[in-house]
Design brief:
10% helix; 60% strand
Length: 417
């Protein structure tokens, strides 16, 4: 009995060793297109926005949120061409457009809306935080294996398009016996590749593709088949060499003032001394001042892409048809944050000696680009044609990421042989 069990283990390990890699290629030559987009918030579900009236329970929001109301987006569009000659020589070229951003309304404002001014202060001051980066990129990648060790190198030229550095804005809420005034004053600097007036007329392509505005970084990676059933990897991506530069700055000033008579008392169920319920009336004024022209910077704003220091692993306990994988990235950015993911995949019916199966079904959970993400993926690989589909529920709040507080979709197409 023990001898049969030992032979079975050797057989499983032997099958696993056939393609002991973290991300084996599926074709010798491949052309691919990928589009991924995700938008999420930390409270509202997608279905809430399809209701006739959007109901906001500030009390419940205050009790369940700890870091305010956040809105995040992530966008990736890419094309690639790869040549894979076994494990000895793998070369790829790629290009695309990527963007991330975040908007956060501080917890202090939400708590005030829920509980009123319980501290007895005459006003509260809370913050609104925003940041964003949109860039285009083009690069090449090279990978080779020496026995069980794989190494990769990838230089990338990137072109920043729009950059909003992390900016904290101020909101003042001033309660009084006659009503409450919400006063928001925000000044944000938006750096761009072109003057904003060009977006309303003909875009100067030569100016946009100025080589002096482009940045350069490199990525290094290594992976090792520690056991026939376990691969581990490490990488440092986007190591800055030359920063990108943006020559135009647009100062955006936004002001918003909202005065309400007895609004918060009414929300809290308070009546006046006569016992009659207070009536609510409000006045508001707002303005967003956007200059007609951007300011040209003699000393351009430098832009660096976030640097990722990552570890990853793939475990195949029963052979190539099933694997458990995970990874963690330490993101050097402002602010610093950590990405991580854990997932499982089912891969049925091998389609190539290189790698790849006819049916691939994956489940992933993790924290990516400051969003909790629950993802389901399906890959149909017909050897010469491959279709990748994914959908995810995401949110800045962990529990809300299971409730559809945000939506992510991905579509990829591969052609080759």
């Amino acid at each position: 009995m023990m001898k049969k069990l030992f032979c079975l283990i050797l057989l499983v390990c032997g099958l696993s060793a056939l393609h002991a890699e973290l991300n084996p290629p599926h074709r010798y030559f491949e052309l691919g297109v990928d589009v991924e987009a995700a938008v999420a918030n930390s409270w509202f579900s997608v279905t809430d926005f399809f209701q006739e009236t959007l109901v906001v329970d500030f009390t419940k929001m205050s009790q369940q949120l700890n870091n305010g109301l956040g809105v995040n987006f992530d966008l990736n569009v890419g094309v690639n061409m790869d040549i894979n000659v076994g494990s000895i020589f793998r070369l790829g070229v790629f290009g695309g457009l990527s963007g991330t951003g975040q908007f956060n309304l501080s917890q202090g404002i939400i708590d005030f809306l829920a509980e009123g001014n319980a501290s007895g202060d005459h006003s509260i001051e809370a913050g609104v935080v925003v940041d964003s980066l949109l860039y285009a990129e083009a690069g090449a990648s090279f990978q080779t294996f020496v026995k069980n060790l794989g190494i990769s190198f990838s230089p990338v030229v990137f072109l920043p398009v729009v950059y909003i550095p992390r900016t904290e804005m101020t909101a003042m809420v001033v309660p009084s016996e006659d009503g409450t005034r919400i006063d928001v004053r925000a000044d944000a600097a938006v750096y761009s590749i072109l003057d904003i007036e060009q977006f309303e007329s003909a875009i100067n392509v030569n100016e946009m593709l100025d080589i002096n505005t482009m940045g350069l970084d490199i990525s290094l990676g290594a992976e090792y088949a520690l056991f026939p059933f376990l691969d581990i990897g490490a990488s440092v991506r986007n190591i800055p060499i030359i920063p990108g530069r943006l020559k135009y700055k647009t100062d955006i000033t936004a002001s918003f003032e909202y005065t309400t008579e007895g609004m918060f008392d009414s929300m809290l169920g308070k009546d006046d001394e006569s016992g009659e319920e207070k009536k609510t009336s409000d006045e508001s004024s707002d303005a967003i001042r956007l200059p007609e022209k951007s300011q040209y910077l003699e000393d351009p704003q430098t832009v660096r892409r976030p640097t990722y220091i990552g570890l990853s692993a793939s475990y195949r306990p029963f052979g190539e048809w099933f694997n458990v994988r995970g990874g963690i990235d330490f993101v050097i950015n402002t602010p610093f944050y950590v990405n991580f993911n854990l997932g499982a995949g089912f891969h049925l019916l091998r389609m190539s000696r290189l790698g790849g199966h006819l049916f691939n079904f994956t489940l992933d959970t993790g924290y990516q680009q400051r969003m909790w993400t629950q993802r389901v993926g399906l890959v149909l690989n017909l050897r010469a044609f491959e279709l990748d589909l994914s959908v995810s529920s995401c949110s800045g709040n962990f529990l809300r990421s299971f409730m559809g507080a945000g939506l992510g979709v991905g579509v990829g197409v591969r052609l080759g042989f």
